[in-house]
Amino acid sequence: MKDNFSNSSDKYAKFRPTYPQTIFEFLYPLLREKNRAWDCGTGNGQIALELSKEFDRVEATDISRSQLNHAFQEKNIQYSQQPAEKTNFESNSFDLITVGQAVHWFDIELFNQEVKRVGKQNSIIALIGYELAYITPEIDEVILHFYKKIIGPYWDAERKHLEQRYESIPFPFKELETPAITNIKLWKLEHLIGYLNTWSSVKHFIKAQGYNPIDEISKDLKLAWGTTEIRKVNFPIIFRVGRIK
After folding, report:
1. Cα(182)–Cα(185) distance, rounded to whole angstroms?
2. Residue 203 CA to its chain's centroid (Å)
């Protein structure tokens, strides 16, 4: 599993969008029990924090110690530095397993084997992600040009799984139909720029070229944003859910 986020974990915690309640409102009625959940690739613990409100215990894992150091803390969340593909959890341990914006970095075949091992009978696996945001046609044009033309060559190959809405990822579970969900945030321009700076491709560009590529679009982005202080930022949610065993 690649670690593209340890060197910006503080920005990740500050600028990455949290997940909408609609996701959890869909998942919880599917569960027989809410004793233990595993949030895999937890990052700064956004999903783990939500799960902690309902579950007796949440295990939250990530390969990045830096990300875990910036994670949200609750008494019933246990953070540990472990790979997704091989954990120290007992078999048949979890009622729910979640992965937020991370499964495309895993060795998916090994991860699926681990899910089958640690998930209880009829437990739930949920893969969650989000697509490129849309705001206004003018802003979207600037961001899409940036995404494809400026930093396009610097995306990791795994990015294709997000672009394909995780449909290209093997999912050997009894898949359930999920609702269409759009995550809506109200952001200032500064927050959008902070979010763009968390993109792995931006960091790859900086390492290769020696400057921040966002500098190339800052003027156009500010012009497209206009005088409106706060705008609605829409993230279409990627959501695959299945029953284990």
Report:
1. 10
2. 17
Write phi, then psi, for 9 (nearest 5 degrees).
-65, -30
Report the CATH fold assignment for 6-243: Rossmann fold (3.40.50)
Domain boundaries, the chain: 6-243
Sign, CA dihedral 19-196-59-66, equals negative
Half-sphere exposure of 245 (CA within 13 A, CB side): 17
Residue that is written with structure tokens 């829409």 in the block: 234
Q: Are 27 and 96 in contact (CB under 8 A)?
A: yes
> Would you state the structure tokens that stand for residue 32, as one six-digit string?
């027989």
pTM beyond 0.90: the answer is yes
Helices (H), 101-188: 108-118, 137-145, 159-163
Residue 121, Cβ density class (10 Å: 0-12 exposed, 13-18 middle, ≥19 buried): exposed
Residue from 9, 1, 13, 42 nearest 203 by CA: 9
Residues ≥6 apart with Cβ < 8 Å to 131: 162, 163, 165, 235, 236, 237, 238
User: Closest Cα to residue 43, out of 5, 11, 7, 93?
Assistant: 5
What token pair was written down for 94?
């979890």
In tens digits, what is the pLDDT along the chain, a chain of 245 residues?
545 555 555 676 789 899 999 999 999 999 999 999 999 999 999 999 999 999 999 999 999 999 999 899 999 999 999 999 999 999 999 999 999 999 999 999 999 999 999 999 999 999 999 999 999 999 999 999 999 999 999 999 989 999 999 999 999 999 999 999 999 999 999 999 999 999 999 999 999 999 999 999 999 999 999 999 999 999 999 999 999 98
Is there a contact between 17 and 79 (Cβ–Cβ < 8 Å)?
A: no
